[in-house]
Amino acid sequence: MSEEAAELDIRRMHRALELARRAEAEGEVPVGAVVATEHMIIGEGWNRPIHEHDPTAHAEIRALRDAAARTGNYRLPGTTLYVTLEPCVMCAGAIIHARVDRVVYGARDPKGGAAGSVFEVLGTDRLNHRVRVEGGMLEEECGSLLRGFFQSRRAPRESD
């Protein structure tokens, strides 16, 4: 990978982190995602299952929906999805159906990750589409955001 391509990946992951912080500000688990072509971001999303009363409103799903609406196509070949947390099984299925070429994620999900941590959905040769996966981009920053969110939820409240 060229230095220019690596820098572009980092910039796009920083945008996903901005979206994750937006989710956190809304009281949602801080996960953000962007879908991009080689030249531009075409879809963005952040976690909103609580606010939308929708268990499918994960950052990846929302970013895929945004990209599909903007392009007028439910297939997204030639795209990369950047996400701050390793996709779950549901999101991995949507990524495959959308024909995303590549997924770049930050923090691993040891309890539900479908890109190798728990399940290997994206890279399996048993499905009709294989996705290239690169994990660990800005892993510390992505993981720290998630850890801080959950620690604040578990911390005793002053009024207790």
Placed side by side, the strands forming the largest sheet appear as 2-1-3-4-5
The description of the largest β-sheet is: 5 strands, mixed
Q: Gap between N and C termini, in Å?
A: 52 Å
Unreliable stretches: none
Structural class: alpha/beta
Strand % is: 15-25%
Question: In DSSP terms, counting alpha (H) and pi (I) runs of 4 or more, how many helices?
Answer: 5
Rg result? 15 Å
Mean pLDDT: 94
The total strand number stands at: 5
What is the H-and-E element order?
HEEHHEHEEH
The rough form would be described as globular
Helix content: 40-55%
Task: Give structural notes.
The chain is 41% helix and 17% strand. α1 runs parallel beside α5.
Q: How does the SSE layout of this entry go?
A:
Blueprint: H1 3-25, E1 32-36, E2 41-46, H2 49-52, H3 59-71, E3 80-85, H4 89-98, E4 102-107, E5 132-135, H5 139-154
Parallel strand pairs: 3-4, 4-5
Antiparallel strand pairs: 1-2, 1-3
Helix pairs in contact: 1-5
